[in-house]
Design goal:
Layout: H1 29-39, E1 50-54, H2 62-65, E2 69-72, H3 78-88, E3 93-99, H4 100-106, H5 108-117, E4 121-127, H6 162-168, E5 173-178, H7 182-194, E6 198-204, H8 216-219, E7 225-228, E8 235-236, E9 242-246, E10 252-256, H9 257-260, H10 276-282, H11 286-289, E11 292-299, H12 305-320, H13 325-329
Helix pairs in contact: 1-7, 4-5, 6-10
């Protein structure tokens, strides 16, 4: 609103702060920042009601560059801090910006619990498969055998699949996009922002300094992208010659459409109540299947933590009068120890 009460149409420029953007030249974070600043006006939310909370890492600089409220918090704890904000200020649009190291290493515990609780916030995980801020150590998503400064003979760790982790924690919204795919990234983030509950978005992001080319197979070759569209058979590749089927054991598999027929293809249903379908799709990887799914894997409705808490507080007030803590502590059976 303007000073005289008239509605003001915000633009992408209104969401750009006066801070100098200081990522390495060529970093994929620039593209992500541009997309988020570009679609923010479409949400129709005042800047004063938008908050970005970050942890530690290259991605964590994000709040400085958004002309909204924000907090650069501590390593891995952004989901916990954002939870406190979301449940006490339901009028706010709360965003968490994190990276593969920040979210899946020291912050792994906080991540899975905010997702299972279904707190009303949006989590964007910038996955570049490396620790960029601390100069190139392997991360929880680095591939097996990855040679870095901290693993000179190759990593022995089996990597996390961020989407599988999120779906395993029963997140109500799970999606994936690429930093350079402006249209696809915008669609996914808009859907996440409008979702009620915890929305988790993995963004494949290139670190051109310490892990350049990690996702070139899907960034440079669109035929390797499996775009998921609700209600449509899953097809991809030149002229849609390839597709995805679901085997009797529940796993998803890439096939040639000519070999199985279109009727055999899996029809994408992100609103399926059970997480098994989204989980099966999350297991499709370029290394094993020659392609990778993008888009919304899961989007369901279930009780939101913030609202459940408000309802419980209201019931407490009805049962105990003003609902003050002292009254609640002394209600029911109590005893005195002398």
């Amino acid at each position: 609103m303007s000073g005289n009460g008239d509605l003001v149409q915000l633009t992408a420029k209104d969401f750009k702060s006066d801070q100098e953007v200081r990522w390495c030249p060529g970093c994929g974070d620039y593209a992500i920042l541009n997309v988020i600043q570009g679609f923010m006006p479409e949400l129709g939310i005042e800047r004063e009601r938008i908050v970005f909370v970050s942890g530690i890492g290259c991605a964590a600089r994000f709040p400085y560059y958004m002309d909204t409220y924000g907090m650069h918090s501590i390593h891995g704890r952004a989901p916990a801090i954002a939870t406190g904000l979301a449940v006490t200020r339901p009028d706010l649009s709360v965003w968490v910006v994190t990276g593969d190291g920040d979210a899946l290493s020291i912050g792994g515990n906080h991540l899975i619990h905010v997702l299972r609780r279904n707190v009303n916030l949006t989590i964007t995980l910038f996955n570049n498969r490396i620790y960029g801020l601390t100069k190139g150590q392997y991360s929880p998503t680095s591939e097996l055998g990855k040679v870095t400064k901290s693993t000179p003979m190759g990593s022995l760790d089996h990597p996390f699949n961020p989407l599988s982790v999120a779906i395993g924690a029963e997140a109500s919204f799970v999606a994936r996009a690429i930093d350079t795919d402006k249209k696809g990234l915008t669609e996914v983030l808009e859907a996440a922002a409008r979702h009620k509950g915890s929305a988790f978005v993995e963004i494949l992001q290139n670190c051109n300094i310490y892990n350049d080319g990690a996702f070139d197979y899907v960034r440079d070759d669109k035929d390797n992208r499996i775009y998921l569209r609700a209600g449509e058979p899953i097809r991809f590749g030149p002229d849609g010659e390839k597709g995805v089927v679901q085997d009797v054991d529940g796993s998803a598999r890439v096939v040639r459409v000519a070999d199985v027929g279109e009727d055999a293809l899996l029809v994408h249903d992100p609103k399926h109540r059970e997480p098994s379908l989204g989980f099966a799709l999350s297991r499709l990887q370029f290394e094993t299947d020659g392609a990778i799914p993008l888009g919304v894997f899961r989007s369901i409705e279930r009780p939101v933590y913030d609202e459940l808490m408000s309802e419980q507080l209201e019931r407490a007030r009805e049962l105990r009068g003003d609902g003050e803590l002292e009254g609640l502590l002394h209600s029911g059976d109590t005893w005195t120890v002398e």
